[in-house]
From TrEMBL:
Example GO BP: ribosomal small subunit biogenesis
Record-given protein name: Small ribosomal subunit protein uS4
The family this protein is said to belong to: Belongs to the universal ribosomal protein uS4 family.
InterPro entries reported in the protein's UniProt record: Ribosomal_uS4, Ribosomal_uS4_euk/arc, Ribosomal_uS4_N
Residues of the Small ribosomal subunit protein uS4 N-terminal domain: 6-81
NCBIfam families for this protein: uS4_arch
Database matches in Pfam families: Ribosomal_S4
GO function terms (MF aspect): rRNA binding; structural constituent of ribosome
Source organism per UniProt: Ornithodoros erraticus (European soft tick)
The entry's keywords: Ribonucleoprotein, Ribosomal protein, RNA-binding, rRNA-binding
Protein role: Component of the small ribosomal subunit. The ribosome is a large ribonucleoprotein complex responsible for the synthesis of proteins in the cell. Part of the small subunit (SSU) processome, first precursor of the small eukaryotic ribosomal subunit. During the assembly of the SSU processome in the nucleolus, many ribosome biogenesis factors, an RNA chaperone and ribosomal proteins associate with the nascent pre-rRNA and work in concert to generate RNA folding, modifications, rearrangements and cleavage as well as targeted degradation of pre-ribosomal RNA by the RNA exosome.
SUPFAM superfamilies to which the protein is assigned, alphabetical: Alpha-L RNA-binding motif
Amino acid sequence: MPRIPTVHSKTYVTPRRPFEKERLDQELKLIGEYGLRNKREVWRVKYTLAKIRKAARVLLTLDEKDPKRLFEGNALLRRLASF
């Protein structure tokens, strides 16, 4: 039987304050609006967007003509288009 590779990185981050009323109401509204099954799906999307925003912030600190910024910037935009 072949081994199936597993991913060892987390796909979501739980909130720091678990019982904050405004956040709970906002998440419940998102779940109802987009038909999500649970809060974990909301947290997963927020975590993915946070990683993309962090990468964009790092790229913006580089020089405009830097090849790394040009290459990774285009890759980041492609990732956002598929997201």
